[in-house]
Design the sequence.
């Protein structure tokens, strides 16, 4: 079994952003101390805007006092990238993995994240590609379908990717998505001619793409792993 690479996959359902952030921090520390396997969190968030470490909150186009009226929260993070939106009907993956053990650099890691979402889109007949210089994420023409924002500390990753299955795109009107003006945001629902299956199936397909591209041959599934959140973040 030499060379078998294992990945724990935690299916969390809908999780408050701060709870997910605390969980990532705990898992990243455990991974740094080699107390657990590489881990992949699969989840969704309630409507949430997040700002990266550059704190470009000026790309929020409505007063922060108005966020409660539209049912959204705002959080500051230490990930890369600009402001973005997370919400229901996105497929979100947060990899907590050791790049050093895999022999990957930051650029190669991001390229594999891009390829993960590109492959998922292709399964539904949608041709996506990385953005042009200065354009992060995954695009269908001039329309953004997937966002990337990662943090790497001591060779351990956190945060990750958000792929738009069928979110309420009106939330994106309140920001300059990822700091890129005059660009549209789109979704798999808008771009494909396919009849989409249940979202859980699409999320599992995204997980499978990730595992294949990163070379994990042994997936350890933690079904309904939301029960672990309180335990891991105490």
Sequence:
């Amino acid at each position: 079994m030499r060379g078998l690479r294992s990945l724990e996959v935690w299916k969390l359902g809908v999780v408050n952003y701060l709870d997910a952030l605390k969980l990532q921090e705990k898992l990243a520390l455990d991974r740094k101390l080699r107390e657990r396997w590489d881990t992949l969190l699969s989840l969704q968030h309630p409507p949430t805007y997040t700002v990266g470490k550059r704190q470009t909150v000026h790309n929020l186009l409505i007063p922060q006092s108005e966020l409660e009226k539209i049912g959204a929260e705002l959080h500051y993070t230490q990930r890369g990238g600009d402001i973005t939106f997370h919400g229901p009907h996105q497929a979100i993956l947060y990899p907590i993995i050791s790049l050093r053990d895999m022999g990957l650099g930051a650029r190669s890691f991001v390229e594999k994240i891009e390829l993960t979402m590109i492959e998922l889109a292709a399964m539904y007949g949608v041709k996506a590609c990385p953005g042009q210089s200065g354009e992060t994420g995954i695009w269908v023409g001039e329309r953004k379908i997937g966002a990337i924002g990662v943090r790497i500390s001591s060779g351990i990753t956190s945060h990750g990717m958000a792929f738009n299955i069928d979110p309420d795109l009106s939330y994106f009107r309140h920001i300059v998505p990822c700091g890129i003006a005059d660009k549209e945001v789109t979704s798999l629902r808008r771009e494909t001619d396919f009849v989409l299956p249940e979202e859980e199936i699409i999320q599992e397909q995204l997980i499978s793409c990730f595992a294949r591209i990163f070379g994990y041959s042994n997936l350890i599934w933690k079904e309904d792993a939301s029960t672990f959140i309180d335990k891991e973040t105490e």
Remarks:
- The CA atoms of residues 5 and 215 lie 7 Å apart.
- The mean pLDDT is 91.
